[in-house]
Amino acid sequence: MTVPVVIVNPVAGRGRGAASKEEIARAFQQAGQPVEILVTNRPGDAAQWAYEAAQRCVPFIAGAGGDGTANEIMNGLSRWLRNGGDPGTMPRFGMIPVGTGNDFGYNFGLPHEVPAACQRLLDGRVRWMDVGLVESDTEPPLFFVNGVGLGFDAVVNIQSRKIRYLRGAAVYLPAVLITLLFYYRSPLVKVTYDDQSFEDRLMMISVMNGERFGAVFHMTPGSRIDDGLFSLCFVRKLPRHSMLPMVPRFIMGTHPKHPRIMMAKAQKVTLESSEPLPSHVDGEIYSVRARRYSFTIMPWKVPMLC
User: Fold this and answer.
1) Cα dist from 77 to 146, 236, 267, 278, 302, whole Å
2) Which stretch of DSSP H or E encloses residue 52?
3) Which CATH number is 258's domain given?
4) Number of domains in the chain
5) Model confidence, pTM
6) 94 strand-pairing partners
7) pLDDT in tens, 66-104
8) Last residue of one domain, picked from the residues 103, 124, 145
9) How far apart are CA 13 and CA 231, in angstroms?
């Protein structure tokens, strides 16, 4: 008999992942549901184990971690599909959000308390979700679940990793302030999305499947993770004195009304930058060297337990 698989990232949430293992085991035991709990040791473990679990046709695969853990598991499942896996027999996917930002889980209203998140998995309610693919001129292709941030946002992500004395959402606000002080780049970027094209100096680009980054920043308010489209946010070059007032706008989701902001939706996107455009994918640094990117929504959807 195949049993569900839960993959725990022990370093997620700066230790919350490791602490969640016993709670997960207890929740499944109390529900009378056998479960296989695996604890990652290195990057790539979650992707490989998800691939192998899909081959065994387990009922569902869940991650206990943050957006990076969700990304790895989805890359394992997506690789299984590309290698001939049947979308009709794909294991359901789930998350126990114990990471730093937990932006992916936000799209589904997942609780941060471990027992409640486990109960969502056991209840079995499914919502079908889209998966994106990013390709660049410097890095291997990578699937993503929540979104890709380029430019200013990626530098914030890099800065957040240097802040060791805070946890959770509190990490990102000081990282934003540091980036505001030291980063002021707006490369000339040619953007093509579906049948539209423009060229401008852009400080930040968000290619979103979900809505939020950094636990509090609503990059594309109201975007849906199941509509078959990317939600796009382009921030044109701003004067330095205008940058700080933009922060609360992104927190409240009112920035789309700003004249230097452009919002759009598309199935395919390409970017060509005049200089290296740093990027993160689902909160993990993807490239600091790439100048060309392409983004595609996959033709299949994934059953997400929520």
Assistant:
1) 15, 36, 21, 26, 9
2) helix 45-55
3) 2.60.200.40
4) 2
5) 0.95
6) 62
7) 999 999 999 999 999 999 999 889 999 999 999 999 999
8) 124
9) 27
